[in-house]
Write a structure and sequence with these properties.
The structure is a homodimer. Chain A has 230 residues and is mostly helical. Chain A contains ten helices and two strands; from the N terminus they run αααααβαααβαα. A two-stranded parallel sheet of chain A has the order 1-2. Chain A is globular. The interface between A and B is large, with 46 and 46 residues. Chain B: This is CDP-diacylglycerol--inositol 3-phosphatidyltransferase 1.
Chain lengths: 230, 229
């Protein structure tokens, strides 16, 4: 350990982390998203495919990191920031093509707010991941975080719902309620997919709200405990 | 110490939630909600409410220090409110200007740079991402070394976005046309737009540099962790 790490200069060591395989997948995700949003209005299907591939890469790079022993803090942050920005950008696009657009602006606010507060409270309590929540008393919270598959379903449901909403809108400024209502009433495969996605999306948003409250409590407790142990 | 034991944990929590600067924070959130609800029907009311919220941002920090009610929750509430209000304004701008993706990109840069900054602040144990002393970049030092300059750049961004929203005539205007014609007018507005553009450009450059610096902090954190098991 001593010999080989002393041979590597600090710059080379830094570069090697930037060139980890999962981090390269992360850069590919960023490029895919940039390209996808560049074509989102001119070619909806291409946009959706690229966006979805990026989403799949999100799962793959975590697996690669563990498999190749290339887990890095930078990789985790790159992942998180790419997720937040891609979801925010998709919600921004949706707010342009649906009425009332402010619904999607509100969802954007909830997404950023809840994840920001979560991350802050994770740091304050020294937990390694905001997904390692064990001591919350809320039953929905426990059900959500206790079951990784259920959690995965809710997260995927959100992205799928937003993508479907973007794909099925015909003209600008369509009424959101009308579009969702008519797609559910069709009784087609699309209806089932929309219904399933809506359910998972709803649970995720409720968990986001609860998480903001829980994380705020963590921030407050942190200060109280700091005062008691000077 | 004894009266701390008398106060129940729930009451102690409640007292922090009721700190004066935190109440100002809740007012800011409400102001922003009302502002964005009205943004298309009454642009001027929106701008006034948004600006008042921005002013409260400065006031609540001052109140926290004056009343000795500084809290982590208050700092987070402040930061999150800032990020969300700027993000929402950029989304609105992406609807009224072509190409809208310019504002979506600015949104991405704002979220990305502040997120990475916050992460790197935690990793290095600094109390505040504004306490940067050891960066070698000259612009970085100039920016963070001078609070007034920093304040000017931050205010310039918000003022530029508000002005752009106010002067947009109808839907889907070309951004380049609107900015160029405003600057060419030679009016006080032209002057204000030019000043804001300058500060905005510096802030965005800082944001980009900050992403790189913060990424380096994350990488160095892992390297140092490996060397001291």
């Amino acid at each position: 350990m001593a010999k080989s790490s002393k041979k590597l200069t600090p710059r080379l060591r830094k570069l090697s982390v930037y060139l980890y395989i999962p981090n390269i997948i992360g850069y590919a995700r960023v490029l895919l998203n940039c390209y996808a949003f560049g074509v989102c209005f001119s070619n909806k299907w291409l946009f959706s495919v690229l966006y979805f591939i990026s989403f799949v890469c999100d799962a793959i790079d975590g697996w690669c990191a563990r498999k190749f022993n290339q887990v890095s803090t930078f990789g985790a942050v790159l992942d998180m920031v790419t997720d937040r920005i891609s979801t925010a950008s998709l919600l921004a696009i949706l707010s342009q093509v649906y009425r009332p657009g402010l619904v999607f602006v509100s969802l954007l606010a909830l997404d950023i707010g809840s994840h920001w507060l979560q991350m802050y409270s994770t740091f304050l309590t020294g937990k390694t991941s905001h997904k390692d929540v064990k001591d919350s008393t809320n039953w929905l919270f426990k059900a959500y975080y206790g079951n990784r598959i259920f959690m995965g379903y809710c997260c995927v449901a959100c992205e799928v719902l937003y993508l479907i909403l973007f794909l099925i809108v015909d003209t600008q400024s369509e009424s959101l309620v009308d579009v969702v209502g008519s797609s559910l009433q069709q009784g087609s495969l699309l209806s089932i997919l929309v219904a399933l996605s809506l359910f998972g999306w709803a649970i995720k948003q409720v968990v986001n709200v609860i998480q903001m409250k829980t994380a705020a409590d963590v921030c407050v407790h942190y200060d109280i405990e700091k005062k008691q142990k000077p």
